[in-house]
Structure formats: C-alpha cells, structure tokens
Amino acid sequence: NMILPFVILLLPFLSVVHSWVWSTVSSQAPKVSGHSVGSISSDEIILFGGLTGPAGSPCTDDTWYFNGKEWSLVDCDQKPRVRMYAASAVLNEKFYIFGGWDPMSPGSGGEFLDDIWQFDWTKKEWKCLESKLPYPVSRHTACTISNENSIIIHTYQKNLLVFKEDFITEQETKGDHQPIGYSMCAVAPLSSTKMVLFGGSTKNQQMSQDAYLLDTETWTWTKLLIAEDGEAPPIMASCSAAPMSENQLLLFGGAGIQPTGYEGGMGLVPQDETWMLTVLDDTTARWTKTDCLTKPDGRVAASLSPVGSSFLLQGGYDPLAKCTFDAPWILKP
Questions:
Q1: Which one of 91, 195, 257, 332 has the lowest number of neighbouring Cβ atoms within 10 Å?
Q2: Mean pLDDT value across residues 106-133
C-alpha cells in the first residue's frame, strides 16, 4: 500500500498542504543527472541528455517525453551530441538547449559546447540553429520571460545572454549586488517580466545562499532581503526550482559543502529539503521550509517541473552514495 505523506506549510494568512508521493509511472523513466528539461505545455515535458551514472559514466543523447502520466523515449533521426549541464528552456512551444559539456573519454577533459538546438515536438525533430553562444559554457541556467518573448541565459560572466528570434545577444545589467561568477544556480520566472536566481557556486567552490530578482524591463538585479521572521536554505548549489505562482517558486535539493572542503566532490553534502520562496515586494522575500514525513533522497542536478497543479522531480545524483536516480516523485499541493 502506498503511504501518502503530508506536510503543512504555514504561510502568512494561508495554510497549504503539500504531499510528496511516488508517482504512478509504470514505464521506464530517465536515469540521469545534469540533464536538460522544459515544459512544452501545462502537463507535458521534454527531457534531453544527462549523465547516466557517477563521474566517468557515459552521457546520453536520448530524448524523453512526459505526457502528464508517464515517460516515453522519442525516436529522433538527427539530434544533438551527448552532453550534460546544458541550459534549456521552452519558447513558443519549442524546446531549446544551449551549450553544455560532453565529457568524452575519461581523462580527456571533454569539450565545452556553444551550439544551440531546437526541438519541435509536433514534428519530433531536432534542428541545429546557425546561431551560437558567444563562448562555450556549461553549468549555466536559462529561463523564459514571456513579456520579452525571449530566453534569458545566466552564465558565470557578467553580462546575460538573451535568445530571441533565433539569435543571441549580450545584455548588460545593473544593480549594486549581482550574481556574477556563479554557476549551477537555480532559476525560475516570476510574473511575465521577472525571474529569480538562487544559490550557485564559483569555480573555487564558494557557494551562495542568496536569492536575486531580475527585472527585465530595467535589466536590474536586486539581492533580496530575507524577512527576519523566517529561516532560509543553507549555502548550496545545483538545486532544482520551478515557478508556483506570480510571486512564488519551489526549490528542492542541491548540495552544500563540508568544512573540510570540496575534496573532488566527496565533500558535497546533498540536501533533501523542500523550500518555497515568496517574493513580498521588489526587495524582500520570505522562505518557508516543509517538514515532509516521506520525501525524495537528497540530490544534485535533478529537474523540477510543473505538471498541471503538481510538480515532477526527475533524476539527479547523490554525490555521497554515488547513486543516480530514475524514480519520479510528484509533489501535489
């Protein structure tokens, strides 16, 4: 018998029940981490690529489709090369991936990529665009901003990249505090003109617990102040995020780092907490942590996607157990 766990989230003037439950997916599901994912409708998801196991394992070039109930493999003639840590987003019902890293053979150092691919679900076809990123990059993030009809790409460099009408441009930003130098961040759109970025890590494994709000009408970053009456997630990177409403996002997982340091990844501490960020105004936000009786194992490099009124957590990797996950989890508010 399935146990239905529950947790009460206390919000100002509102009480909402959130329950992590195993999904009823009976078919094979993608067992990957560092994959690319995007929602092509309110309950349909496209997933591409990712790492199939611990470091040194092969990457895949498989394309998967989730129909709201189960996963299935998509047969494609032409498709992108294998990769992990590509940025991805959906624009005008087309799924896009940007760059990433092909590890290639162990010890080779692999290759960082600058290509842009478009997947058309109606035709089941991949197409490599003529436009390229201005530099090869991985561990970056992408977010669709509907008012701009564009995809915003955040990398470790200062300027943002804006993808619109199949072309990439660089966009300067303003703000006294900006998330410069960070990769492996979590992003989600808020309203039609803003996005939130959380956490991340520098090349020297200096991690963050800050949340930033980007206003694309002024291209200004604001480091959000956290309400004093609430707690906040720890310093961590490689979380999964998804939009919940016009001013809320959901966050799961990620990893912090032990006092002894990174230690080639062995110093990472996977997190298994579920957080909700409520943006109160343009400068202030409040975090709320759930207390789930049953919940997914801690993981990095997973994906979290809206599916109707629920959320699908797929894949990810536990750096301590060296385990890659395939079992889908559903969060039903």
A1: 332
A2: 96
> Tokens 């915003």 sit at which residue?
152
Tell me the two tokens of residue 286.
Answer: 């409040």
Distance CA 165, CA 151 (A): 10
Phi, psi of 3 (to 5 degrees): -90, 125
* Angle made by CA atoms 312, 318, 320, in degrees to the nearest 5: 160
First to last CA, the chain: 21
Q: What six digits make up the tokens of 11?
A: 């919000």
Q: CA-to-CA distance for 60 and 126, rounded, in angstroms?
A: 15
Q: Which residues pair with 163 in a beta bridge?
A: 151, 168
Residues 6+ apart with CB under 8 A from 204: none
The larger pLDDT score, comparing residue 12 to residue 265, is at 265
Q: Is the pLDDT of residue 300 over 90?
A: yes
Please count the residues of the chain.
Answer: 333
Cα 153 to Cα 7: distance, rounded to the nearest angstrom: 34
* Pairing of β 150-154 and β 7-11: unpaired
